[in-house]
Amino acid sequence: MFDDLSSKLQSTFKSLSGQSKITDLNIAEAVREIRRALLDADVNYEVAREFTKKVKDQALEQDVLTSVSPGQLFTKIVYDELTQVLGGQKEEIRFASTPPSVILIAGLQGSGKTTFTGKLAKYLKSKGRNPVLAAADVYRPAAIEQLKTLAEQIKVPVYSIEEKNAVRTAKEALQFARSNAHDVLIIDTAGRLHVDEKMMAEVSEIKKAVQPNEILFVVDSMTGQDAVNTAREFDKTIDFDGVVLTKLDGDTRGGAALSIRNVVEKPIKFISMGEKMDSLTPFYPDRMAQRILGMGDVISLVEKAQQEYDEKEAKQLQQRITSDKFDLEDFQKQIHQIKKMGSLKDLAGMIPGVSQKLKDTEIEDNALDPIEAIISSMTPDERRNPQLLNASRKRRIAAGSGTSVRAVNDLLKQFAQMKKMMKTMTKMSKMGRAMQGLK
Ligand code: GDP
User: Fold this and answer.
1) Cα(first)–Cα(last) distance of the chain, in Å?
2) pLDDT tens digit string along 182-193?
3) Among 88, 160, 244, 282, who pairs with 135 as Cys (CB 3.0-4.6 Å)?
């Protein structure tokens, strides 16, 4: 699903991730690539334009967060916008306060109405409801048979009559639901290959006769912008409540999914990803956006970093590192920051590609505790100047932190290595800047 769009967006972020900060130039380039990716995915032109404008505005507004790379920041901005364009919140179907609730299913022929009717019934049954179906697609005998076959599989009754009268079928089915204690009636209506007045008139009449609580418009996502235009036509006549996007298991580019909400201003409520009765999924805009971007949970990671990271403190820290003043007291602050961000395993699991590997490794959440305890047992002087730590001081610290002299030595060794590495990195980046003629 949306493979092409996904890989184009991801390669945009990748090309940004090599850069150290967001600039007007790389924003402009990234935004251009995003717009091209959206248009190639058959997203409505206006929607794509609006989308990229918002992404650009937000990127320009951002302060340079030293804790987040431009690639990550852009991923977050695009993720937020994708979620919005897909509808923001998950939207539920509406049920009547006094049953039975009536759900009317409308759409073109071949869009997947009958299949969806069956899936919805099965889904509602699994939620403890007791649905009945009405076969109001009265013109094609095969349609009624198809519905009956599906209904048999999922063990739900179907109401149908001999007469080819969709309105009467719907009305009688409602009576049937009432007198047989069914709390939901799902009406499968007839579609045509194209929007025509007779079909619209019939759906409108059914609507008037049974006053549905919910009208769902079913549309084949493979038809791209045609799907959006059909939705607009249907909405003008029947003012539906939600969209069902079908055939998302196919090779669909994503245009319908990303445009329909903004063009028609109605939420997507379900997606269908297969012909079998069990592949119905309520639609979650945020999860779909995550899928499109192929992310682990980078989003939460960036959000956490944004919440917890004090920019001023970060800059001070950077300065201490570059001037070789980073000491055990700074190290202690760092550990504290990391701990504030939550469970170590959760944090590591949010990094894409890591979560799978982590399943086999155990990271204890208290892994940092002994280190913290050792540093806390030192005097401020010792933290600033570890050379003071002779054998007797080390014994005191080991006892005070409930560890061993060996653990104290290990920590000091690691810290010395870390400082050495920081020094080398600082030197290298200074050299790099000098070579580029920037400083
Ligand atoms: P209707 O004319 O609107 O009632 O459409 P149908 O329910 O008969 O579906 C038309 C065709 O699309 C059938 O062959 C279905 O099996 C198929 N179909 C429906 N939904 C999906 C879906 O989500 N994925 C795939 N791959 N096929 C589907």
Assistant:
1) 47
2) 999 999 998 877
3) 160
With a threshold of 0.95, tell me whether the complex ipTM lies above it: yes
φ, ψ at 104 (rounded to 5°): -100, 130
Its pTM stands at 0.69
In a domain, 291, yes or no: no
CA dist list (Å): 267 to 42, 217, 235, 262: 19, 10, 12, 9
Q: Are 240 and 215 in contact (CB under 8 A)?
A: yes
Pocket test for ligand 1, best of 275, 278, 283 (most atoms within 8 A of CB): 275
Which pLDDT does position 356 carry in this prediction? 44
SS (HEC) of 197-215: HHHHHHHHHHHHHHCCCEE
301 is in an annotated binding site: no
DSSP class of residue 249 equals: T
Q: Kindly state whether residues 215 and 167 are assigned to the same domain.
A: yes
Residues touching ligand 1 (Cβ under 6 Å) are: 107, 109-115, 191, 246-247, 249-250, 272-275
* Category of 274 on φ-ψ map: left (φ > 0), alpha (ψ -120 to 50) or beta: left
For residue 400, what are the domain limits? Answer: 310-435
**Residue 190 in marked binding region:** yes
Whole-number Å distance, alpha carbon 110 to ligand 1 midpoint, is 6
Q: Does residue 123 share a domain with residue 270?
A: yes
> Does one domain contain both 223 and 185?
yes
Note whether 61 and 173 are same-domain residues. no
Residue of 54, 52, 60 whose CA lies nearest to 22? 60
Domain boundary among 62, 89, 116: 89
Say which range, 24-28, 29-33, 290-294, 299-303, has the weakest mean pLDDT.
299-303
Q: Which residues pair with 88 in a beta bridge?
A: none
CATH assignment at residue 348: 1.10.260.30
Closest ligand 1 atom to residue 115 Cα is: 7
- Residue 299 inside a domain? The answer is no
List strands edge to edge, sheet with 101-107.
Answer: 158-159, 131-136, 184-189, 101-107, 214-220, 242-246, 268-272, 280-282
Secondary structure letter of residue 250 according to DSSP: S
Q: Domain tally for the chain?
A: 3
Find the CATH number of the domain harbouring 74. Answer: 1.20.120.140
107 belongs to an annotated ligand binding site = yes
* Contact assessment for residue 80 and residue 69, using Cβ atoms and an 8 Å cutoff: no
- C-alpha 252/C-alpha 156 separation (Å) is 31
Residue type, 403: T
Which DSSP helix (H) or strand (E) runs through 241? none
Co-location of 251 and 197 in the same domain: yes
- Domain annotation covers residue 56: yes
